Amino acid sequence: MTIDEDLAPQPVAATLPGLVPGTGDDGLPRPDAPLAVVTGVTGYVGGRLVPELLAAGYRVRALARNPDRLRSRPWFDQVDVVRADASDPEQIEPALRDAHVAYYLIHALGTGSSFADRDRRTATTFARAARAADVGRIVYLGGLTPEDEELSPHLASRAEVGQILLDSGVPTTVLRAAVILGSGSASFEMMRYLTERLPAMTVPRWVDNRIQPIAVRDVLRYLVGAAAMPPDVNRAFDIGGPDVLTYRDMMQRYAHVAGLPRRVIVGVGVLTPRLSSLWVSLVTPVPGGLARPLVESLVHEVVCTEHDIAAHVPDPPGGLVGFERAVLLALHRVQEAAVTTRWSSASVAGAPSDPLPSDPDWAGGSLYVDERRVQVDASPAALWRVIEAVGGERGWYSWALAWRVRGLVDRVVGGPGLRRGRRDPGRLLVDDTVDFWRVEALEPGRLLRLRAEMRLPGLAWLELRVEPEQGAAPLTDADWTRAPVVFSQRALFHPRGLAGQVYWWSVAPFHGVVFGGMQRNIARAAERADRAMIRRTPTSPVPPKPQADD
C-alpha cells in the first residue's frame, strides 16, 4: 500500500503558516507562547490534539480527572498536567486561568439516558468558569445538524452545548462535524467492521441519507487554526470533507479501498435505531451504548450548508482530504499498528476506576485472590513480550470458548465485551483498553495490571508479573536475557454485597481451567519465544499465537 506524501505523518501546523505561534529552535513551544488548555485529553480527539498544539508552538495545559492516566503519553513531560473535573467549578476555574484558548472536548455520549443532562450541567459550569478566568477563546467540536428537523437526542445535546458556550460571554468557535474518518474513531470502526464482516447485509433505509464525512487530520487542523480567530468571531462553522456520500456509498467505497468485493446492501424499513444499534453492537466492536447515538445521528442528512471557516482557516494547498484517501490513511495506521488514540480511550460509563488497594491488610472489605506462580525456562524479555501482547486478536491463552461467552454476556448486559480489542497488537500504554480490561499499571519488563471494565458485582483486577527465580537477586535491565524466570499471575476481586460474594464463589471452581490454563500457555509461549529469540536478532521476535490448553 502506498500513501501519498501529503498524507504521511506531519504536524497540521505545517499547513497553517502565519496562524500558529511556531516553535523555538529546539522544536518546543517558547516560554512566552500562548497557553492552550485542553479538556478531554484521554479521549479520541483530545489525545491527538495535544501533540498538534505543541508542534504549532502553543504551551499546553492538559486537564484530567486522573492525571496518572496520561503518564505513558509521549507528550506527558512537555505539558502542564492538572487534575481538574470540568463539572467542578472550584477545580475548573483555576485550571483555566491565563488560557489564550480553551478546548472543550467533553461529552457524555454512551453514558446512559441522562447524558444530555450531564452534558448541559458540565457545559454550563465550564462556560461560567471560562468567563470568570478571562479565557481568550473557547473552541468546541460539536455535531453537524440539519435545519428544521427534530434532532436525535445525541445531536440535540451537541447543539445545546454549543449554544451554551456561544452564550458564555467568551468568544467561542463551534466546529460542527458529521462522521469523522480516522484510525480508531468510533464512526470509522463501525463502518469498517460492518463492511469487512458482512459481504451481504440488510440495513435500515437511512443508509441512503447523505453525509459529508471529514478526515480526522482536517478536524485537527481546524481545531488548531481556530485558536487564532479574532476576538469578534463568536459563531458556529460547518466543517466537512470534499465528498458528500450516502452511508451505502461509504461502505462500498471502503470495500473498494480495502480490496474487498462489492457488498450486497439491501435497505428495509423495519430496522429502528434501537434494533440497528443492537445489530451494530453484535457485528462491530462498538458497544450498544455508543452505537445507538451514532446510529440515531445517521437518521438525519448531515451536509455542510456553508464553508465560512475558510475565511479564518484556509484550505490546505492540496485541498481537504477526500473519503478514499482518508480510508487509505486510516487502514495504513491500523496495519502499521500506529493508532495513537481510539474511541475506547475514553472510560466506559459506569466502569470502575478505583485502583488496586496497595495495603495488604486492606480495610475496604473482602479482597479475594487467586494467585499462581510458575518457573519459566525463558528470559524476562521473552516472557514480557508474551505478556504485553495478551488479549485482542491473540486471545487469552486459555479456554477460548469461556472467554467468548463471557464477552458476549457482558455485551448483552451493556458492557464493552471482548470486541474492543487493543490499540496496538504488541505494545501497551497505561490507560489502554485490552478487550474488557483497561491497563491500570505498567512497568515494562516487570508488571502489567489490568482493571476489569466488564459488568461485575464488584471490582476486579488481573495482574501479570515477571519475577526472578526463588533466591535470585532482583531483576535489573541487565538481566533482560537471563533465564529461568518466574511468571506470577494474580486475579483479585472485591465483591459488592451479596451478589458479589455469590459471583466469586460461583466462578471460583473454573479458575483452575481459566487462570491455570492461561498461566501454563503463557509460560509455554514464552519458552517458544525464547528459543526463537536465540535464532533471531533481539529486535525481531514476535510472541507465538496460543495453542490449546492440554
UniProtKB/TrEMBL annotation:
Protein name: NAD-dependent epimerase/dehydratase
InterPro entries, per database record: ComplexI_NDUFA9_subunit (IPR051207), DUF2867 (IPR021295), NAD(P)-bd_dom (IPR016040), NAD(P)-bd_dom_sf (IPR036291)
Domain of life: Bacteria
Chain ranges of the NAD(P)-binding domain: 40-176
Source organism of this protein record: Cellulomonas gilvus (strain ATCC 13127 / NRRL B-14078)
Lineage of the organism: Bacteria, Bacillati, Actinomycetota, Actinomycetes, Micrococcales
GO molecular function, a single term: protein-containing complex binding
Coiled-coil regions listed in the entry: none
PANTHER family membership: NADH DEHYDROGENASE [UBIQUINONE] 1 ALPHA SUBCOMPLEX SUBUNIT 9, MITOCHONDRIAL (PTHR12126:SF11), NADH-UBIQUINONE OXIDOREDUCTASE 39 KDA SUBUNIT-RELATED (PTHR12126)
Segments of this protein annotated with the region Disordered: 1-31
Gene3D superfamilies: NAD(P)-binding Rossmann-like Domain (3.40.50.720)
